[in-house]
Amino acid sequence: MVKRIAVVACVLWMIGALSGWCSAPTGKISPALQRMIHLYQSQGPLALGKTGNVEDRSRLSMIASGRLQAADVARRGGVLRWQRDGFAIINAPAAAVENLLQVPGLTWLEADQMALPTADVSMKEIGAIAARENTGLTGKGVLIGIVDSGIDWTHPDFLSSDGKTRIKYIFDMSVNGPYYGGTVYTEDDINASLAGAAIVKQHDFSGHGSHVAGIAAGDGSTTKNYGGYAGVAPEANLIIVKATRNTYTSEFSSSDQLLAIDFIDSAAALIGQPCVINLSFGSLFGAHDGTSAVERFIDMVSGPGRVVVAASGNEGGKKTHAQAELGTTTAQVSVTIPEYSANAGSGNDLFVLDGWYDGGNSVTVTVISPRGQIFGPVADGGYLGKNSIDGQVLIWNGLYDTGSDIVPGVDPYNQDKEIVIQVGDDLGTAPRAGEWTVRMSGRSGSVHFWMANKSMEAVFNEGVSDRMSLTIPSTSKSAISVGAYTTRETWHDLDGNNLTIDTKGDITVGDVAEFSGAGPSRDNRIKPEITAPGRIVGSTMSSDADPSGLYSIFVSPDGSFPNAFVLEDGLHAMSLGTSMAAPHVSGTVALLLEKYPTADAARIKQALIYTVRAMSAAKRDQWGYGKINCAAAAALRFEDLPEDPNNNPPVAFKVSRPYPNPFSYSTMVDYEIPLTAGGENQLTIHIYNSLGQAVRSLYDGRVSSGRYSILWNGRNSVNQPVASGVYFIEFKYGSNRLIEKICLLAGK
Hints:
The structure is a single chain. Helix content is 16%, strand content 29%. The chain has 748 residues and is of the alpha+beta class. It has 4 domains: 31-111, Alpha-Beta Plaits; 121-314 and 478-602, Rossmann fold (3-Layer(aba) Sandwich), CATH 3.40.50; 321-460, Sandwich (Jelly Rolls); 654-744, Immunoglobulin-like, CATH 2.60.40.2550. The termini are far apart.
């Protein structure tokens, strides 16, 4: 799943070599800027080294406070590069600093501090470096399988210290060969090609696969101590599947996904090492309940020493999911098509909806065009194909092929019914722009629709839901689904420009990315389970992914910054998306498999969940259980986990109804304590009578995450029976307060 950064109105500045300095009045220059000027004065331009920008070392870049006029700055030897709400960026020679202090409105000048845009940001954030330092785990003896756009097998990130590859196999589906139409290259083939033989013909022209692999297992292209761009598991070996049949584009069919997963699983068995498989792609077409073919295959493959990690998708906030609730009246959803230019010919302008509802229900579907043309109704088990001046409409409602006939029925794997609606131009008339309505009637229940395919900017309008925007296969029951949060918003590119993705000032480092796919799954499982850095991450750049090319994920949208996403060493680059979040988790899984090579997928998932940094209930559908904590997971002893690997901690504070109620001798209340970012919180459980008087304290102390029960025997704080009547049990946990009413019938 590729998510390109839109760099609009990028902020850039240059720190450069300086040429002299005159002492300036105090009170308007920051100490850091004074230090920078002093370094230049005493040691010359090279003193700035990597702390300065290299585009023009004869000039300083400074951040100014105050409301300034460009002409005033220019008259005093500087250039006003950017200004907004009392903040400005000025470029000027060091010798001009004294004059700049006289600019009207200027109140403060400070140094332009360099933030190095490396994978080190996300790796430190999740505790990957601490995990290596504290446990010695590096992924050695573990395989990471990457199903993606390929890999730059020549990149130093994937070579060992002796110059040999760490890639065990490459299965390239884009190069015709005998293995399911593709070509397999072995470790020996790769090493021979590194030595000059022309054997390996695999390329990663988009760069997506190399970037993902670098996050999971790149070694940072430096010494044995690893570099600033080292991935989570820098000593893990790799199995790569280029799972696209097109050399340049990155589209993965379900069948090829199956082949890819199977190949990695088989190769890992042959090598005899545990393996985690990273899937940084997804589709909206399907039931979103873990029952697609790929997801069921994932469930089959998952087990001891086999774990699958899948990105949750980048559909958050994109209006690609809608939900209708059937009742006594009709329910409906709608799709808006803005004005667009139709493509020449036929069969290339369309939108496709994929809908699902309970198999025990019976739903009738009608589609209404923007001009009011009616298509249907189509009853449960029916089909409609009709052309019109508004476009061709096709509707399938609960139809299934038995092999000899087309009959009404349910999906065999989830026992639900599916609706597929296509509005297109197969007969030459393009879909009309405007509001398309899907009206339904039937017994009460939910109908979910996803925008499965589209050639124009069609989005749901009526019925749109921010939930269940996950892509498939991240809704797999066994796979670990990963959402994305922000760890960086600015970086320096190859040309020394300081760029930002926060062009509107609405991005918060540490917050979940708005594009991150939201759960739960349609069958109401918590998905994603975990969230990792996905905006914005520096990692391996494929040498084939030329940023001036058509297919590279590093293509700049602004010609003024042709190398916008290429980092200063020219070997690494920036990208974002849940695609980049998933390999952070895959690398962490590799560390756990190094420690526990026979651990199964359920136990690994449990360990990750139990060690997350839990977040607030806000955006819970995107956060899952919380942020990954690689250091805590690596240090965890699996024997300290509950015996049931599916016994995941609660995600919210919850109190169940007391039972029995009314009661005579004792009543019990179940409650759930969620994971909390700060660890344990204080819990109090108090009994009050109907007058609000305290009767008894049942608990007062700190408590960790888990599910608990507490019993009250109808006695007060001095163990005396209390009278019959109404009582209240108050639960206080952190800022949460819940009260349950109970009735005591004493002596009955």
